[in-house]
Every structure is written in C-alpha cells, then in structure tokens.
Amino acid sequence: MKFHAWGALAGGVIKESIRRKDLWVIAILSLVILLFSSALGFFGVQGLQVFAKDLGLTLLSVLSTIMAALISTRLLPDELKSKTIYPLAARPISRFDLLFGKYLGAVFATWVGFLLLATTTFIGLAIFKVSFEPILLQYLVFKAFGLALLCSVGMMFSLYCTTNAAATLTMVLAFGGTILSRGLTMAYGQSAPALQAFFKALNAVLPQYGLFDLGGRAANVRWSPAPMWVAAFLFGYAVVYSGFMLALGMRKFGKQAL
Amino acid sequence: MARFALPILALLVFAFGFQSPRVEPVVSAQQNLSQLEIHESSASSSVVGQFRTNVTSWLWLHTDLYLHNGVEMRPLTEQEKKVGKGGDLASDSMKEEVRVTTIPARESDFRGVFGDVERETSAYKTMQHHSHNDPDVTLPLFRLMVLVDPHFTPGWINGAAMMALDHVPNANQVAVDFLKDGLRQNPGNVLLNLELGGMLVGKLRRFDEGISALQEGLKNVQPRDLADEEYGSAVEDGIRWLALAYRESGRPSEERQTLEAGLKWFPGDKVLSGMLDKLAK
C-alpha cells in the first residue's frame, strides 16, 4: 500500500484540474443553474418547488455525469501524449500505483466539482424556499459513490480507445444504461430462455449507474431515505465494480510499451 | 426529308404550346406572405414554436408524474397485451388506459437484488388502488405551460379543472378566470368556451353568462370535427349544459330548439332525448 504515492498522484490531478481551468467551467455551469432558477422566479409562477427541485437535481445529475466522464477519460491519454508519464514511470512506483493514484485523483476532482455544483443548486433551490431534507444528503452520498464508479469505467475505456471514444462510451453507458435496463425488464417475460440468459448476463455486466440516483425520490414529496442495507450494497457494488474496471484497465496498461 | 422531321415536330409542339391556357393563374396560390402565419414564413419562428411545443409537452407529462408523486408509469406493450398481462391502474379513475409502473414489481423483475435496490432508490410503489397527490402540486405547471404556449388548449382546460379542485373558497371562480384568460389568448376557441360555459352553469349557476359562452362555443363547431372523440364529447356536454341552462332560466322554447339541434348531431344521446321527452310532458 503506497498511500503517500497515491495521495501525491491524486493531488497532482486536482492541481492539474485547477490549472486547466476545469473548475472555472464548473463555476460557469453553476452560474447557469442560478440564472435558470432566477428566470423561473422571474415568471412569477408560485408553488414551483417540486418542479424546481426536480429540474435542479436533474441538471446536477447530468452535469456531474458529463464532468466525471470527461475528467476520467483524458487523464492517462494526456499523460501518454505529452510524455509526462515518463518522469512518473521513472519513480519507484508500480504501474498499478500510477493507475490507482490517477483514478483517485479523477474521483476527488469529480467530487470537488460535484460539491460545487450541488452547493449552487441548493442555493438556487433556496430561492424557491426548498428546504434541505435528509434525503438530499443521502442523494449526495449515493451520487458520489456512483461518480466514483463512473470514473473507473471512463478510465478503463481510455486505455482501450481514444479519449473521445472513451468519453462517448462512458456517457452512453451512464445515460443509456437505465433505458437499456428498462428495455431488458420489459422484454424478458416474452423472450426465449436462451435470450433470457443473455439478458441476465448483460444486466450483470452493465454498470448500474442509475441505481445511485435518488433524484426521483428526493424531488418529490414524502419519500423516506433508502434503508441502510441499500447504502451498504451500493458502496460494496461501487468498490467491487470499480475494482473490476481498474483490473481490466491494468490488463492493458500493464503491458503497454511506454 | 427524315432529317427535317424532328425540327418540324419540335416547331409543332412549340406552336401548340402557345395555344395552351396560361399556367400561371391556375397554379399560383391566391395568397401572399401577409396571409401566412408567422411560423409558416419565418424559419426562426418555426424553431421557436417547436421548442415551445416540446417544453409544453414535457411539462404536460410532468403533471401526471407529480400527481403520482414521481412514480413513472407506462402503457402495456402490444406483446404484454397479447399474453394478457394486467395493468396496475385498473382502479384509477383519472386514467382509463391500462398502465404499469416503469420499474417492474418484484415478482416480474428478473434482476434480483438490483431490482430490489432500484425499488428502494427510485420513486416506486405499488400502484394498485393508489391515491394521487393533491392536484395543487400541478397548478404551477399548468400556469407555466400556458405561459410558454398560450395556444395549448388542453393546458387551459385541464388546468382549470385542477384549479376547481383546489382547497380554496373561491376555487371555481379562479378556474373561471383562468379559462377567461385562455379565451383572451384564443378568441372563439370552441373547447374553451364550452368548458367555461359548463363551469358557469354547473358549478357557479350563473346561467346567463354560461349561456353566452356555450352559444359562442357551439356557434363555431365544425360538424366534420365531431368524429374526434374528445371534441365530440365536449360538444355533446356543451349542448347538455346549454339545454339545462335554458331550463333553469325558464326558456323552454330555446331548450327545445337546443335539444332538437343536439339530437341531429348526436341521435343516440339518451340524456338529450330524455330531456326532450320530459319537456314534452
């Protein structure tokens, strides 16, 4: 366990993120959220709390997903392209340490951006007199687990294909995964047994990113937070799935000629 | 000789062309730009119009979602209907369509623990014999959708119906004012006039005002549109309200005329024929 090395690599990713002005982009997006909230208020339609909360959480979810995909998919290809990976590879750390440190950096950078966006969203919601409920805290925690999982998917794809292709595939899986899962459950009952087995396998392999989104519950009224066993399951699933994705990535990165 | 045949034929065709009637007055539409709607003559207006329609439709879908507290529903697929799958909404008085929850119930979900977790993290509950959220949660959406697209008639009509259900003392008057706003944006609209008239007669018992609105609505009815189920049903209800308003106002001859005219459009309407029989006695 090289916590020091992982920490240094992750810190480097965050510093790079600041240098590349990623956080400025997030700040601008946050401003868009605030302006949008103000625009709704400008129309003078009263009682839009549920709608504003729904819209705010949807926007937060979409923007944070895009951010996770873009940050995680460009880290290693950029290092390889600019050859800045050589000084890192010359250090007494293994390639796994390098990959894992970068992954942690991607996760932390995404979380920082997500928290910034969330803060602005909640300020925007406060304009509509939406109070902060416990389920919103759970929404943040679960979403953070989900973003960590998505970063691992993005990082894995970035080692097998180009940056743009990896970002596209990650976003397709993030946004289309739930739709695909719905399609599978709808078609399952009327399908042949062989196809049903394929559906089960496909569903097991796909990242279940949609499970981490409590937006539907948090936006509406009188929904209780999810039970603890669900939180434990999602945490365990995120750890296991991310581990699997990093192992897949390592399979390629470990053999890659530098 | 043969080499002249083609030019001569061409000349004959050309000469014959002069004999034909002028094409221009026949194909030229008797219309100029000033007669076109703005969205027909301006690309940017057309795009804005499409955007407006999409936003309105999206808000329309959300009213249903909020009434069900975020639980997403879907209609049954053709295959599901074939195998006789039942819906969750058999007892739903607000929708006649058989629908099921988008997230399947445990017994029909093959995903095991993933399905269980989704039912715990999403807005999901069994929808058999379910209740609805207070309709006032949807009122701002109706106001917003008619603000975005003032020509969206279902927004005005359903919004008014929801406002009439609100728990405020003057709910019916608020609904009537909302419909009058709609008529200001859509003068002469048949459905809005009929809804307004029905509300004035049925809920507020303001017969004279109701009669004016109903007459205005029925005046603009196009008989060819009666085949449309929703439109036809609104017109049929409008005729019934008008006949009732005449009866309550002590105007039997006008009631008879309305009933007879209504029965020409809807010969099988038992309410209209019953009212006519009662009037004859």
Give a description of the structure:
- Chain A is mainly α and 258 residues long.
- Chain A contains 10 helices and no strands.
- Chain B is mostly helical.
- In chain B, helix 11 (207-219) packs antiparallel against helix 12 (229-248).
- The radius of gyration of chain B is 28 Å and the shape is extended.
- Chain B starts with a helix and ends with a helix.
- Mean pLDDT of chain B is 85; it is low at 90-95.
- The interface between A and B is large, with 39 and 34 residues.
Question: What's the topology here?
Answer:
The complex is a heterodimer of chains A (258) and B (281).
Chain A: H1 3-19, H2 22-42, H3 49-81, H4 85-89, H5 95-127, H6 134-160, H7 163-188, H8 193-205, H9 215-219, H10 228-253
Chain B: H1 2-19, H2 24-27, H3 38-41, H4 43-67, E1 73-75, H5 78-82, E2 99-101, H6 113-121, H7 139-148, H8 153-164, H9 171-185, H10 190-202, H11 207-219, H12 229-248, H13 252-265, H14 270-280
Antiparallel strand pairs in B: 1-2
Helix pairs in contact in B: 4-7, 7-8, 8-9, 9-10, 10-11, 10-12, 11-12, 12-13, 13-14
Summarize the structure.
The complex is a heterodimer of chains A (258) and B (281). Chain A has 258 residues and is mostly helical. Chain A is built from ten helices and no strands.
Describe the global form of chain B.
Answer: extended
Question: Which H/E pattern describes the elements of chain A?
Answer: HHHHHHHHHH
Please state roughly what percent of the residues of chain B sit in beta strands, choosing from under 5%, 5-15%, 15-25%, 25-35%, 35-45% or over 45%: under 5%
CATH class placement of the largest domain in chain B:
Mainly Alpha
Percentage of residues in DSSP E strands of chain A: under 5%
User: Based on helices, strands and strand pairing, what is the structural class of chain A?
Assistant: mainly alpha
User: Overall 3D geometry of chain A?
Assistant: globular
- Helix-strand pattern of chain B: HHHHEHEHHHHHHHHH
Number of strands of chain B: 2
The domain tally of chain B reads 2
Give a short account of the largest sheet of chain A: none
